[in-house]
């Protein structure tokens, strides 16, 4: 099921959306649908991580970090 939605955008934003949708080869509707889905995903991810963090403990976190092997990074991964 789909629902129609009318929004008012500044002309410059509408033109940018139109341009980027053309580059991506999708309709403006598809572009905005994907943009909204990405934003929802990001917000839900933050919310989920925050709620999961409240369930853990510092002891669990330290145990997880201590389980990571203590290997030197590859030469191309080392910081200068």
Strand and helix layout:
Elements: H1 11-24, H2 28-55, H3 58-66
Helix pairs in contact: 1-2
Question: Can you walk me through this structure?
Answer:
With 80 residues, the chain is an all-alpha fold. It has a domain at 19-67. 64% of the residues lie in helices and 0% in strands. The protein contains 3 helices and no strands. The protein has helices at 11-24, 28-55, 58-66. The longest helix has 28 residues, at 28-55. It is elongated and about 55 Å long.
Global geometry? elongated
Series of H and E elements: HHH
State mean pLDDT (0 to 100 scale). Answer: 92
- Strand residues, percent: under 5%
Give a count of the beta strands, DSSP E runs of length 2 or more.
Answer: 0
Task: Count up the helices.
Answer: 3
Contiguous uncertain segments of 5+ residues: none
What gap, in angstroms, lies between the N and C termini?
A: 54 Å
* Helix-strand category: mainly alpha
Bin the helical content: 55-70%
Radius of gyration: 22 Å
Major beta-sheet overview: none
Short précis:
By secondary structure, the protein is mainly α. Helices cover 64% and strands 0% of the residues.
Key attributes of the depicted protein:
80 residues; mainly alpha; elongated
